[in-house]
Amino acid sequence: MALMTSASAPTASPALHRQPHFTVLLALMVALAPLSMDAFLPAIPAMAAELGVDHSRLGLTITFFLAGYAFGQLSGGPLSDSLGRRPIALGGIVLFLIASLGCAMTHSLEWLMVFRVLQGIATGMTGGVSRTVVRDVATGKDAARLMTNVMMVLMAAPLVAPSLGALILALSTWQMVFIGLAVYGVIAGVAIRQWLPETLPACERSPLSLRGALASYRTVLTTRGVPGHLMLLLCGPGIMFTFLTNASYLYQGVLGLNSGEFALAFGANVGAMLIGNRLNHFGLKHLRTRKLVQVALCMQGIGITWLISLVITDNVQVATLIPGILFVLGAGGMITPNVMADYQSLFARGHGAANAISGTVLYLGGGLYGALASLWLSGDDMLAVPLVMLGAWAIGGFGFWVTRHTAPSEQSSD
User: Fold this and answer.
1) What integer pLDDT is reported at residue 11 of this predicted model?
2) What is the distance between the alpha carbons of residues 50 and 165, in angstroms, rounded to a whole number?
3) Which residue did the predictor score with more confidence, 10 or 333?
4) Is the pLDDT score of 393 beyond 70?
5) Which of 270, 282, 369, 401 could cysteine-pair with 238, CB 3.0–4.6 Å?
6) Within 13 A of 57's CA, how many CA atoms are on the CB side?
């Protein structure tokens, strides 16, 4: 299967990306994965007690979920290039409903693992389509604006999901968390059926075959500019997942916040990313996406340097640490959507496979950064967290340099 790489016109109506309900639809689709991965976290103690297993073993369900998500991305991308976007998105929703209800009804850890893998596959398929259709209907700054909203949801949902799970748990049992996810899946499915047109015409689809799918991935990975973009894509999510994985340690362990104070401090990060989101929308009216990425990278570098200096000078306290983290995460909200839009502009068709690769890198890479920081932490010394953030930022900065020298920008005339 040949992948064409150029900046051709979208295949669907150019006006589709300007319709508010289309943005809502994409938000519903992209939120499936982070909500499914994190909403059940507050219920782990209750689940462990009922299933008769250790807490740490339930933590493995996240690993199984991410493995399923990666498979869903990598298989759903080529399938959407061959069968169209709508069938894959709706098929993912059907599988998600089955898996969520299965999680709610299971009485063993083994079956819970199975259904979590299926949940991951389902969200990988549907979530991957949500990013792919952006490139189908928009290019340039229009794609960047739409992707800003999509990535805002993708980055904010992991911060909101545990609070939603805790609310459900306070009112009912842990099974209701998964039933609530199933209800959300029904809502997303209805929205897809009503609002998502087929954005890939039959004449532009590729034959379905394993050899064609592998050829598609090979073409994507060897396309000029892709390596730099993938390194850049690891920057924002890598830093966010590093914080997310270690938020309780930082805020409750190091700063000594109680549960109520932790909830407020944790929720403030959503506000910071929302501010970054709005600043990006404003900046796109005056600057090219790559210039915005450059500015945001500089801002993040300053913020991470500040966090490192707090540890070195033993000045870690509420008034210094929390504003620094808010600044870093807010700047990250300006990087990922612009990089994703610029990455998608490298492909004219067959970009379901391209988005499968980017989605897998974004989630699995970000999760690995967070795990690295967790394994590195020791006692009250939090230096590992900003150092891992610095590593993610440095790789992103190198990726930006590579991108500037290997991939022409689609917005040369914007």
Assistant:
1) 43
2) 17
3) 333
4) yes
5) 369
6) 12
Instruction: Please state, as a whole number, how many other Cβ atoms lie within 10 Å of the Cβ of residue 76.
Output: 31
- Rounded Cα–Cα distance for residues 264 and 291 (Å): 33
pLDDT of res. 390: 95
Residue 392's nearest CA partner among 238, 243, 188, 176 is 238
Alpha carbon dihedral 236, 238, 243, 246, in 10-degree steps, equals: 170
Contact present, 239 and 124 (Cβ < 8 Å): no
Surface-to-core class of residue 222, CB atoms within 10 Å of its CB (0-12 exposed, 13-18 middle, 19+ buried): exposed
Checking if the pLDDT of 111 tops 70, the result is yes
Mean residue pLDDT of the chain comes to 82
Check residue 412 and give its pLDDT.
42
Structure tokens given for 348: 């004219």
CA–CA dist 344, 348 (Å, integer): 8
Please list, in sequence order, all residues whose beta carbon lies within 8 angstroms of the beta carbon of residue 47, skipping any fewer than 6 positions away.
40, 58, 112, 174
Q: Do residues 228 and 406 make contact, with C-beta atoms less than 8 angstroms apart?
A: yes
Instruction: Indicate yes or no: pTM above 0.85.
Output: no
- What integer pLDDT is reported at residue 187 of this predicted model? 95
Which pLDDT belongs to residue 5? 41
CB contact set of 156 (below 8 Å; sequence gap of 6+): 270, 273, 274
Nearest to 125 by CA among 71, 46, 168, 82: 71
The dihedrals phi and psi of 74, each to the nearest 5 degrees, come to -70, -30
Gap between the Cα atoms of 119 and 135, Å rounded: 25
Best CA proximity match to 278, nearest among 339, 233, 342, 337: 337
Residues, the chain: 414
CA angle at 292 for the pair 242 and 31, rounded to the nearest 5°: 50
Per-residue pLDDT, 376: 79
